[in-house]
Design brief:
By secondary structure, the protein is an alpha/beta fold. Helices cover 36% and strands 15% of the residues. It has a seven-stranded mixed beta sheet with strand order 1-9-8-7-6-2-3, sandwiched between helices. The longest helix has 26 residues. The structure holds 4'-deoxy-4'-aminopyridoxal-5'-phosphate. The site of 4'-deoxy-4'-aminopyridoxal-5'-phosphate (PMP) has 12 residues, from α5. The site of 4'-deoxy-4'-aminopyridoxal-5'-phosphate has 12 residues, from α5.
Length: 365
């Protein structure tokens, strides 16, 4: 892979809001002096809290714990200085928007139907939201050809692959050409890979070697089964990481969260994760078989992630009756082009059996 010529002039520092460029980041006690010795520099309690715990919970945590960062870097096969660990990808999305979008001036591009936090973070920041709706081709969602043109007016372009809620992948060629065309005016292309472990051959991460304006978001919330821990990762050019670090909270990662994440990323745990992915894929096939022959299901998008999207005759009714049976499904009808569409997460074998049995009780409408 060769670096495109237009990458030479790309400087994330010039792209950042002037306020962020001028900012002297808050220097926390831990980042200034580390955590060894007699710690009288952070107004912490010298006492352990009165509970059973081996952790130093009276002390502030490392802002970016080295061991966790190194392990994530090893798993993602990137240098540790390309990573920022955040409170879920939600925080990564928010930091990117706050660093790069000037209120009432800059815009972000999104590709609905998509995850709602891209537009929400933009609106909170006072940035404009430009939409390039996905198009449906032969039963598959894909990027709209107009995206290239819209992206030229936008600081940030949010892509998601596999996409939530449609499950489609975005081809690496499309990502590469989009990011390349954004280089001259310095726009960032952000690929949210929250579900990429379910389709691991499709990651755009390797393209970062030739595209310094490509940012990848990962999370431990999905395939790593750690949604409760709130750990996301921004993977980007070290200059972008440095800018995001300027505005992240001083101590974003709670000690218990970090202590739990480490063993979940061990080789043994990753082997178990592979078995879980196989199990989910089997349950997905079972569910799809039930959905595809169901009289109320008009269309099914299997997608590449741990959910499927379906269109039914009456989404509200389905969600209501599933709810009455104790099964929670997610209505997607408010998204463009997804009227009467419902997203169903793939659960365990027992949960899938319960869902299939519920579906069998429904009468044709
Ligand atoms: N991106 C996508 C596409 C998602 O679906 C989600 C969660 N539903 C997130 C990001 C946020 O994940 P996290 O738990 O890491 O904040």
């Amino acid at each position: 892979m060769r670096l495109p010529e237009s990458s030479a002039g790309f400087d994330p520092m010039q792209l950042a809001r002037p306020e962020i460029r001028a900012l002297t980041p808050y220097a926390s006690a831990r980042s200034l002096a580390g955590s060894s010795g007699i710690l009288l520099n952070a107004n912490e309690s010298p006492f352990a809290p009165p509970i059973e715990s081996d952790s130093s919970l009276n002390r502030y945590p490392d802002p970016q714990p080295e061991t966790l960062k190194n392990r994530l870097a090893e798993i993602y096969r990137v240098e540790p200085d390309r990573l920022l660990i955040t409170r879920g990808s939600d925080e990564g999305i928010d930091l990117l928007t706050r660093v790069f979008c000037r209120p009432n001036q800059d815009r972000v591009l999104i590709c609905p139907p998509c995850f709602g936090m891209y537009a929400l973070s933009a609106r909170v920041q006072g940035a404009g939201v430009v939409e390039s709706n996905l198009i449906e081709e032969q039963g598959e969602f894909a990027l709209n050809p107009d995206i290239q043109q819209h992206a030229l007016d936008c600081r940030l372009t949010f892509l998601c692959s596999p996409n939530n809620p449609t499950g489609n992948l975005i081809s690496l060629d499309r990502i590469e050409s989009l990011a390349q065309s954004q280089l001259p005016q310095g726009g960032l292309v952000i690929v949210d890979e929250a579900y990429i472990e379910f389709a691991p051959d499709n990651s755009a991460l390797a393209l970062q070697r030739i595209l310094p304006n490509l940012v990848i978001l990962r999370t431990l919330s999905k395939a790593h089964a750690l949604a409760g821990c709130r750990i996301g990762v921004v993977i980007a050019n070290p200059k972008i990481i440095e800018l995001l670090r300027r505005i992240i909270a001083p101590y974003p990662l709670p000690t218990p969260t970090v202590e739990i994440a480490l063993p979940v990323l061990s080789d043994d745990a990753l082997n178990i994760q592979q078995q879980q992915l196989t199990e989910l894929s089997e349950q997905k096939q079972r569910l799809l078989a039930a959905l595809e022959s169901h009289p109320q299901v008009r269309q099914t998008w299997p997608g590449a992630a741990n959910f499927v999207l379906i269109r039914v005759d009456d989404a509200k009714r389905l969600i209501q009756s599933a709810g009455d049976a104790g099964i929670r499904l997610r209505d997607q009808s408010a998204q463009p082009g997804l009227d009467n569409c419902v997203r169903i997460t793939i659960g365990s074998k027992v949960e899938t059996t319960a869902l299939i049995e519920f579906l069998e009780t429904l009468n044709p409408s």
